[in-house]
Design a protein that fits this description.
The protein is mainly beta. Helices cover 9% and strands 51% of the residues. The strands form three sheets. Strands 3, 4, 5, 8, 9, 10, 11 and 12 form an eight-stranded antiparallel β-sheet that branches. Strands 1-2 form a two-stranded antiparallel ribbon. A two-stranded antiparallel ribbon has the order 6-7. The longest helix is centred in the middle third of the chain and has 14 residues. The chain is globular.
Length: 156
């Protein structure tokens, strides 16, 4: 992070890129769910004293990643569509479920230079939906994809 005068300038949230299986995905406008995990808490009563002791459960849960992207007719539209179809195996006798998994990264940049990287592992498409269609509107047509994954961590 750059030092400006006596303060460290904070990074802005606007400059980032999503990479899935080594391929950058342009057109992504928002990524939410950047959580490094949460450990459940177990409340253990202290034998008749009325006190509750809190201990970690050792089970780590990760928040889903929500990807918002512009639908623009680019090859990216097809890549996300194929992943969705592979996951759900539309019009097939058996469903794919979480079998089609991919690894990825969200690279946070500051003035073009990568400053933070979040890697996620074994992600699959949980859901995909599109913007509402509205006559007379000038809103952009967007796709919102929810990814489940087995872990997200900051990497060097």
């Amino acid at each position: 992070m750059p030092k400006v005068g006596d303060i460290w300038e904070s990074y802005r949230t606007s400059e980032f890129v999503l990479v899935i299986d080594g391929t950058e995905s342009p057109g992504v406008t928002k990524v939410s769910g950047l959580s490094e995990g949460e450990i459940d808490t177990i409340e253990q009563p202290d034998g008749g004293s009325g006190r509750i002791i809190k201990i970690a459960s050792a089970v780590i849960k990760y928040e889903s990643l929500t990807i918002e992207r512009n639908v623009d007719g680019s090859p990216e539209d097809q890549r996300f569509r194929l992943w969705f179809q592979q996951t759900f195996q539309l019009n097939q006798p058996t469903q794919g479920g979480s079998g089609v998994r991919k690894n990825g990264m969200i690279i946070k940049r500051h003035n073009g230079t990568p400053v933070l990287t979040f890697a996620f592992y074994n992600a699959w498409v949980k859901s995909s939906k599109f913007s509402d269609l509205e006559a007379g509107s000038n809103n952009l047509f967007k796709q919102t994809i929810v990814l489940e994954h087995e872990g997200l961590e900051r990497v060097e």
